Amino acid sequence: MVVDSTAIVTGGGRGIGQAICEKLASEGVDVVVADIDEGETGETEQLVEARGQRALSVETDVSNEEDVSDLVETVLDEFGSIEILVNNAGIAGPTNPCEDVEPSEWDATMNVNLRGPFLLCREVIPTMKEQSYGRIVNIASVTGKKPLLNRTPYAAAKMGLIGLTRTLALELGTHDINVNAVCPGSVDGPRIDRVFEKQAEATGRTYDQVRSEVECQSPRNELVQREDIADAVAYLCSEESKRITGQDLNVSAGKVMY
Predict the structure, then answer these.
(1) Which of 48, 8, 42 is nearest to 28 (CA)?
(2) Where would you tag: which of 31, 155, 221, 244 has the fewest CB atoms within 10 A of its CB?
(3) Residue 189: its pLDDT value, please?
(4) Is 207 among the catalytic positions?
């Protein structure tokens, strides 16, 4: 990592985001935890500070332009620079056939999962250009590559996020700003449990049947752990990956290989 780096991690209060915050802190990065529920960020702050790094929580709705602008202004006031942006905040969206998805559900999913990363990138790019350095990592999904039954809004948003990643990599490469995506497979934890429950309900199967089917899609017969995603993000923010940009890296235990 660049010495005295500062990272913004959206959705950093729990799950994958929390693991990313802790991992970056272990690499010597100060971390700003941007989360829509600031009340859930205390544990993440403690994990970052336990690694000897500064932590700051900022309540942020990533789909709100004013919130995003205020976030970046606050970070620059407190830390002076932004070297790393991790667009991790996301929602699962509905689990229904397309014809049963409400337009409001579509909009909500797009607003968080695609509009949010766009707004964050748009806001930090001028600073990264000015300092001639930046690392942006978007947390997409293998669902942006491989269809997932009854998840149309989520799949469309994640595929769009991969498109955003590639285009920004092309635009920003000459400024030493790398833009990559990490595409997790099914990450073990409460969020995927809720998805499995909804899939089971929608298809008339049991939770165990749905989970077993997903596990069997991996050559390793297992789900991904949140630490696997954090390790990939840290690598893409490191100097060892300085000539890697515009990529969508699968971390899926082999579920998707393209």
Answers:
(1) 48
(2) 221
(3) 87
(4) no
Q: Distance between the two ends of the chain, CA-based, in angstroms?
A: 28
Pairwise CA distance, residues 22 & 26, whole Å: 6
Residues with Cβ within 8 Å of residue 212, at least 6 apart in sequence: none
Residue 212: inside a domain, yes or no?
no
Per run of 10 residues, the mean pLDDT along the chain (length 258 residues) is: 89 96 98 92 97 97 98 98 98 94 98 98 98 98 92 97 98 98 93 86 90 90 96 97 98 95
* pLDDT of amino acid 10: 98
For the chain, how many helices (H) and strands (E)? 9, 7
Query: Backbone phi, then psi, for 92, in 5-degree steps?
Result: -75, -30
> Of 154, 207, 235, 258, which is the active-site residue?
154
Per DSSP (E only), the strands in the chain are 6-10, 30-35, 55-59, 84-87, 134-139, 177-184, 248-251
Domain that holds residue 174: 6-185+225-251
- pTM for the model stands at 0.94
**Inside any domain, residue 220:** no
